[in-house]
From TrEMBL:
The keyword Repeat does not apply. Keywords: Membrane, Photosynthesis, Photosystem II, Signal, Thylakoid. This is Photosystem II extrinsic protein O. Pfam families: MSP (PF01716). One of the extrinsic, lumenal subunits of photosystem II (PSII), which stabilize and protect the oxygen-evolving complex. PSII is a light-driven water plastoquinone oxidoreductase, using light energy to abstract electrons from H(2)O, generating a proton gradient subsequently used for ATP formation. Required for dimerization of PSII and for binding of PsbQ to PSII. One of its GO terms (cellular component) is plasma membrane-derived thylakoid membrane.
Length: 277
């Protein structure tokens, strides 16, 4: 019996080694080199392309010209939610949260226009692509904060005096944050913006009460966020550039039924510069 147990343990160990040494990729720099089966269930589809850490260069630009940034990708890595301090004399601080959403958080396949002003100000404007993702973050106390991670309509500008994209280029600007829920969404009481009940039918006598007015009157509010894109790596031979980003935006309001939380998101980004045809 003891020999049989040792044999079973040995076979299990061999099987584990074979599995670990299989040809399933763990990390790659270029997803285009992989097949669908090699990417499936690995999380690689949620990763932005990477540039070598040793790449340092510049992408020259001509003033008065416009360019296109293709394959723009943002990969969030850290989430923070502003919480009220225990002591009222202290300022509110951002509390790190745990991501509950699976590997569907990155914004990718986006395009943006890049214009160069006569004063050397670079203006980056996001145009289209997969520029939004619903995300849920859980705080240490158990509270869950849903948000609409996005970069819709982002318009970021640099300081004056630039004639290239380099490791000193920072784009800062604002973007729009659409409602987390659509106008056709119904809450658990059957209330919505364009359809559903006007109030909770379980409380007909209190339908017009001020206590329930905010929950009864639904609205798809448009929020506003700010973002900073800091370029840290440039590959002049391919036109690629990458770096880190930090954004602050409001969370979901349950169609106006509650106040939005202030959320800070940090991560990495990637893009490729091309001349406008």
């Amino acid at each position: 019996m003891r020999f049989r147990a040792l044999l079973v343990a040995f076979l299990a160990l061999c099987l584990g080694v074979l599995t670990a040494c299989s040809d399933a990729p763990s990390a790659v720099l270029n997803r285009n080199e992989l097949t669908y089966d090699e990417i499936l269930n690995t999380g690689l589809a949620n990763k932005c392309p990477q540039i070598s850490e040793f790449t340092r260069g510049t992408l020259p630009l001509e003033r008065g010209e416009s360019y296109v940034v293709t394959d723009l990708c943002l990969e969030p890595q850290e989430y923070f939610v502003k919480g009220e301090p225990v002591n009222k004399r202290e300022a509110a601080t951002f509390i790190p949260g745990k991501l509950l959403t699976r590997d569907t958080t990155s914004l990718e396949q986006m395009t943006a226009s890049l214009t160069v002003g006569e004063d050397g100000v670079l203006t980056l404007k996001e145009e289209d692509g997969i520029d939004f993702q619903p995300v849920t973050v859980q705080l240490p106390g158990g509270e869950r904060v849903p948000l609409f991670f996005t970069i819709k309509g982002f318009t970021g500008k640099t300081e004056a005096g630039f004639n290239s994209i380099n490791s000193s280029t920072d784009f800062e600007g604002d973007f729009k944050v659409p409602s987390y829920r659509g106008a056709g969404f119904l809450d658990p009481k059957g209330r919505g913006v364009v359809t559903g009940y006007d109030n909770a039918v379980a409380l007909p006598a209190s339908a017009d009460s001020q206590d329930f007015q905010r929950a009864n009157v639904k609205a798809t509010e448009l929020g506003k966020g700010t973002m900073s894109l800091q370029v840290t790596k440039v590959d002049a031979s391919t036109g690629e550039f990458a770096g880190v980003f930090e954004s602050e935006q409001p969370s979901d309001t349950d169609l106006g039924a509650k106040d939005a939380e202030e959320v800070k998101i940090r991560g990495i980004f990637y893009g490729r510069l091309e001349a406008r045809a």
